[in-house]
């Protein structure tokens, strides 16, 4: 995935960069939830928090075996245009169709260095294709082309994509009302996120660039309340930060879900962290990081004013863009914890506004 507009640095230098980039500590009272502007219609949306009993009920829902199965189906080399890439796409499409999601492909051709012309396919899955507004959860399903090595991309982004399929599986009952509601859920699996030769404006995020442009022409960007992009997840001890002011209150809801789960001891162990500059006992750090030096699939949407929550750890996992980004780096306790936090966040977003009724 992605490029950093910073030189490659050893992990300890990363810490310094993170420190330098921290410009604000989140203060709960400074962000009024009623100020949340979602959609370009500037509607304010302020769903209520899940009640104690609902929170407990939904926390109980999980299917860890399914999550592992989904990871193993996606965790094969899946460079755009390869047979394995088609297999992974078919697996994602079929899994969602089996759960009665509406699935369509956004297919297009583009030319890439080394490969020449390629056929790309973004996968767009919605519970209600006719909804007016969507919470969008996204990942990329292609893997990086490495001429001299086998690259599996466990964190990049087999685990994030498996988490989305697992969410659809685990919450199938709870999500049923959103097949007819005005506010609904969309899962987006971008194609062609990786560069083939060297990351640049024409060699990277092929799928996201295509889709953002297409939806702009079709006037569909306004229906996206928020794009939540998952990337580089699955390694132990991730630290997340709030990157964008206009989605900070949603970031704080993720933090709050994490805190509630920790309080009732429903998170599996937090692995001990070697990074002393941040709070090792939580994933969602209480700082904002405003220098937007991370390029990823959100950029074409961000440029078109779509609110973005970027769930990517800083620093990146140490295995990033190496053949070591394979099954052995996956920490399943962390993965299950994050999957649970994201499920509860999505349910709070969708159910808290009583949109289903
Ligand atoms: C959650 O699951 C546990 C164990 O299966 C059960 O004892 C408990 O009643 C459940 N709680 C809720 C709120 O469903
Ligand atoms: C396709 O995936 C299989 C695992 O299912 C793997 O053994 C094989 O090497 C992959 N093919 C390519 C061309 O990467
Ligand atoms: C995964 O990467 C680790 C670290 O490089 C390596 O030791 C291991 O053999 C790899 N495992 C697989 C299944 O490729």
Automatic annotation (TrEMBL):
- What does the record give under GO molecular function? glutaminyl-peptide cyclotransferase activity; zinc ion binding
Q: Where is the Peptidase M28 domain?
A: 122-344
Instruction: Return the broad EC class.
Output: transferase
* Reactions listed under catalytic activity: N-terminal L-glutaminyl-[peptide] = N-terminal 5-oxo-L-prolyl-[peptide] + NH4(+)
Protein name per UniProt: Glutaminyl-peptide cyclotransferase
Question: What's the chief localization of this chain?
Answer: secreted
Q: Which PANTHER family does the UniProt record give?
A: GLUTAMINYL-PEPTIDE CYCLOTRANSFERASE (PTHR12283), GLUTAMINYL-PEPTIDE CYCLOTRANSFERASE-RELATED (PTHR12283:SF6)
């Amino acid at each position: 995935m992605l490029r950093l507009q910073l030189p490659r640095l050893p992990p300890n230098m990363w810490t310094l960069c993170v420190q330098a980039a921290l410009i604000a500590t989140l203060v709960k009272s400074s962000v009024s939830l009623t100020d949340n502007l979602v959609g370009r219609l500037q509607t304010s949306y302020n769903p209520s928090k899940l009640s104690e009993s609902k929170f407990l009920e939904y926390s109980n829902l999980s299917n860890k075996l399914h999550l592992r199965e989904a990871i193993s189906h996606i965790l094969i080399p899946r460079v755009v245009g390869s047979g394995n890439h088609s297999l992974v796409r078919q697996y994602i499409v079929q899994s969602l169709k089996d759960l009665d999601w509406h699935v369509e492909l956004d297919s297009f051709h583009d030319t890439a260095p080394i490969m020449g012309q390629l056929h790309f396919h973004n996968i767009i899955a919605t519970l209600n294709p006719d909804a007016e507004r969507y919470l969008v959860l996204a990942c990329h399903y292609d893997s990086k082309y490495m001429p001299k090595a086998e690259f599996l991309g466990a964190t990049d982004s087999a685990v994030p994509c498996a988490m989305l399929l697992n969410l659809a599986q685990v919450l199938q009952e709870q999500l049923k009302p959103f097949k007819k509601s005005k506010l609904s859920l969309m899962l987006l699996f971008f194609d062609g996120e990786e560069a083939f030769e060297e990351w640049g404006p024409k060699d990277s995020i092929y799928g996201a660039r295509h889709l953002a442009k297409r939806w702009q022409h079709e006037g569909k960007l306004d229906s996206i309340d928020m794009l939540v992009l998952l990337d580089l997840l699955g390694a132990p001890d991730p630290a997340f930060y709030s990157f964008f002011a206009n989605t900070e209150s949603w970031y704080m809801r993720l933090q709050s879900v994490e805190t509630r789960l920790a309080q009732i001891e429903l998170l599996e162990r937090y692995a001990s962290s070697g990074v002393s500059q941040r709070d090792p006992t939580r994933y969602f750090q209480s700082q904002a990081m405003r220098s937007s030096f991370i390029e990823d699939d959100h950029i074409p949407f961000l440029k078109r004013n779509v609110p973005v929550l970027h769930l990517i750890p800083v620093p990146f996992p140490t295995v990033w863009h190496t053949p070591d980004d394979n099954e052995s780096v996956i920490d399943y306790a962390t993965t299950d914890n994050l999957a649970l936090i994201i499920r509860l966040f999505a349910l709070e977003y969708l159910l808290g506004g009583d949109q289903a009724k």
